[in-house]
Each structure stands twice: as C-alpha cells, then as structure tokens.
Write a structure and sequence with these properties.
Strand content: 5-15%
Largest sheet: 2 strands, antiparallel
Structural class: little secondary structure
Strand order of the largest sheet: 1-2
Number of strands: 2
Bound molecules: zinc ion
Number of helices: 0
Radius of gyration: 11 Å
Length: 42
C-alpha cells in the first residue's frame, strides 16, 4: 500500500547540479535537467 501524505511537498534537488527546485518543478531551473519526483511508491 502506498503512503501518500496530503500536503507534504519537499523541494526537489537536481541530481545533476544540486540546485534545489520547487516541489512542483518539472525541470531544474538552473541546468534544465528533468527532475525526479520523490513520491515514488515501491
Ligand atoms: Zn540542475
């Protein structure tokens, strides 16, 4: 079962340059690398 907190949005850190982007960001604001979401359900 997947645990999904209602309003917990953490900043997404770019794996390429380390820039912290907004939770809703799709791509890094600095280098443009596509960001991965942290709410992956295993
Ligand atoms: Zn980046």
């Amino acid at each position: 079962m997947c645990f999904r907190p209602p309003k917990v949005e953490k900043p997404i850190k770019c794996e390429a340059c380390g820039t912290v982007n907004l939770p809703k960001s799709v791509k890094c604001k600095k280098c443009g690398t596509e960001l991965k979401k942290n709410n992956v359900c295993y």
